[in-house]
Design a protein that fits this description.
The chain is an all-alpha fold. It has two domains: about 45-60 and about 175-240, Orthogonal Bundle (Endonuclease Iii, domain 2); about 70-170, Orthogonal Bundle (Endonuclease III, domain 1). The chain is built from eleven helices and no strands. The chain starts with about 40 loop residues before the first helix and ends in a 25-residue tail after the last helix. Its EC number is 4.2.99.18. Pfam families: EndIII_4Fe-2S, HHH, HhH-GPD. It comes from Bradyrhizobium vignae.
């Protein structure tokens, strides 16, 4: 039988793969440059701002309705994450029946909830108001204490609550920083800070003592009605010529 020979199959030479063209590296986006620090306010400018506030509103009043230091304390505790108008609507009837710690305890948590149920977080707040009333009776003789540390020791009361009560009830030169004061302090450059405490201390440092009694009210009202969060009313602002905000519209 004839021997069959097979021709070796010729293998095609492997075609070298084309080298991928090097992709030019995209230039790294430069990091955002930090905002240029605003020019600090001079003492004369700060004095001018608060002189204007005083001239426009010599005796500013807080908008939380109350009849004594205890009802003021309760109103401020209830105002957390709520509007003053909403709190006033609920407390008008409440304070007619419970304007002392003892009367509040006698009212009881369940009945208290019925009075304040239109306010956000009313269940927790009712519990705190009953607890702080009990503590006022057991530790402070039924009176609102006159130091920040003692007020802060009460259930539901923090630093802002203490500052409001000390200022409005006892005439202390304290600076209560709510969302309005925090915004105004930062936006105007008057007392920039990352936390309410930083803004508070910054304002206390620059505001002359003669204005401190009413300073937090002027700043709250300015933030609530003029220096609004979304659409500040720069055109009617009393201090628009001094304000450091780079986006002001005048």
């Amino acid at each position: 039988m004839a021997k069959i020979t097979r021709k070796p199959v010729s293998r095609k030479a492997a075609v070298p793969k084309k080298k991928a063209k090097p992709v030019a590296a995209k230039p790294k986006s430069s990091a955002k440059k930090p905002l240029k620090a605003t020019r600090p306010w001079t003492p004369a400018e700060v004095r001018e701002v608060f002189s204007r506030f005083r001239k426009a509103n010599p005796e500013p009043k807080g908008e939380l309705e109350h009849v004594n230091p205890f009802t003021l304390l309760v109103a401020v505790v209830l105002s957390a994450q709520a509007t003053d108008a909403g709190v006033n609507k609920a407390t008008r009837a409440l304070f007619e029946v419970a304007d002392t710690p003892q009367k509040m305890l006698d009212l009881g948590e369940e009945r208290l909830r019925e009075y304040i149920k239109t306010i956000g977080l009313y269940r927790t707040k009712a519990k705190n108001v009953i607890a702080l009333s009990a503590k006022l009776l057991s530790e402070f003789g039924g009176q609102v204490p006159r130091t920040r540390a003692e007020i802060e020791s009460l259930p539901g009361a923090g630093r802002k609550t203490a500052n409001v009560v000390l200022n409005m009830a006892f005439g202390e030169h304290t600076m209560a920083v709510d969302t309005h004061v925090f915004r105004v302090g930062n936006r105007t450059g008057l007392a920039p800070g990352k936390t309410p405490l930083e803004v508070e201390l910054g304002l206390e440092k620059v505001i002359p003592a003669e204005f401190m009694q009413h300073a937090h009210h002027w700043l709250i009202l300015h933030g609530r009605y003029t220096c609004l969060a979304r659409k500040p009313r720069c055109e009617v602002c009393l201090i628009n010529d001094l304000c450091r905000w780079p986006e002001k519209t005048v």
